[in-house]
Amino acid sequence: MRLDLTGKTALVTGANRGIGKSIVEAFLAAGVAKVYAAARQPESVQPLIDEYGDKVVAIALDLVDADSIAAAAQTASDVDIVVNNGGVLKNGNPLDDNVLDNIDFEFDVNVKGLVRVAQAFAPVLKANGGGALAQLNSIASIRNFAPFTSYAASKAAAYSLTQGLREALAEQNTLVVSVHPGPIATDMGDDAGFEGAPPATVVADALVAGLQEGTFHVFPDAMAKDFWGAYEGYAQAIIEPALSEG
């Protein structure tokens, strides 16, 4: 299902910086009329409002706070596109003493946060004709990396949930997109020690194209495309047909 972005209203979580900020900007460049820029501290999106005026609306949303997400869904009752971009990463291998604490933290944000957003906004999207829900996953959702083992586990769970959401939301004509970047030049990427990574605009532009083309899987950057080259056959034979037949 292809989606024409022209004149649409979108909401992006984690919109104050990095990939989220780039998605807001890419959406506006693609013809989206208004973007709710969601962040735990809505004042942090003021630079976007300064640049784009009333096309950007700051909104409070915390992925671990179901009440804040429900309130955001009430405020943003006109949305056609919801992008769950917000996420967290903790460094550590599976034998570290703090790995269980990391798992609790990352699963609360990266996994339960997706479910909270989907449950709150699915009725809104349905009421507005279906629209789209996009989830920022990672290449780490299909391959674990020991230095970020709990993060990868959380993204694998989020990817699995994204597949389930695609099937469940197809009934209300909602396009679901799963985005799988490799390392990207963001604050999170810097904290993880990545150097020479591509800019966040690569992810934002690929998401726009994915929505316009109606694709489920989006692997945006060079490393991600290498992963997709190996994974594509399996995904197209097993994951995508199984979901579409559901």
List keywords for this structure.
alpha/beta; Rossmann fold; 13% strand; NAD(P)-bd_dom_sf; 246 residues; 8 helices; single chain
Reconstruct the topology from this structure.
Elements: E1 9-13, H1 18-29, E2 34-39, H2 46-52, E3 56-60, H3 66-75, E4 81-84, H4 99-127, E5 132-136, H5 149-170, E6 175-179, H6 187-191, H7 200-213, E7 217-218, H8 222-245
Parallel strand pairs: 1-2, 1-4, 2-3, 4-5, 5-6, 6-7
- Quote the distance from N terminus to C terminus: 15 Å
Question: What's the CATH superfamily, by name?
Answer: NAD(P)-binding Rossmann-like Domain
* Helix-strand string: EHEHEHEHEHEHHEH
How many strands? 7
For the record, what CATH class applies?
Alpha Beta
What's the mean pLDDT score?
94
Physical arrangement of strands within the biggest beta sheet: 3-2-1-4-5-6-7
Helix-residue proportion: 40-55%
How much strand content do the residues show? Answer: 5-15%
Which fold does the CATH topology refer to?
Rossmann fold
Shape designation: globular
Can you tell me the CATH architecture?
Answer: 3-Layer(aba) Sandwich
Sheet with the most strands?
A: 7 strands, parallel
Domain module tally: 1
Number of helices: 8
Runs with pLDDT <50, length 5+?
none
Secondary-structure-based class equals: alpha/beta
Q: Over the alpha carbons, how many angstroms does the gyration radius reach?
A: 17 Å
Could you characterize what this model shows?
Pfam families: adh_short (PF00106). GO terms for molecular function: oxidoreductase activity. InterPro entries: NAD(P)-bd_dom_sf, Sc_DH/Rdtase_CS, SDR_fam. It comes from Algisphaera agarilytica. This is NAD(P)-dependent dehydrogenase (Short-subunit alcohol dehydrogenase family). It is a single chain. The protein contains 8 helices and 7 strands; from the N terminus they run βαβαβαβαβαβααβα. Helix 5 (149-170) packs parallel to helix 8 (222-245). The protein is globular and about 45 Å long. The model has no long low-confidence stretch (mean pLDDT 94). 50% of the residues lie in helices and 13% in strands. It has 246 residues and is of the alpha/beta class. The longest helix is centred in the middle third of the chain and has 29 residues, at 99-127. The protein has one domain (9-239): 3-Layer(aba) Sandwich (Rossmann fold), CATH 3.40.50.720. It has a 7-stranded parallel sheet with strand order 3-2-1-4-5-6-7, with helices on both faces.
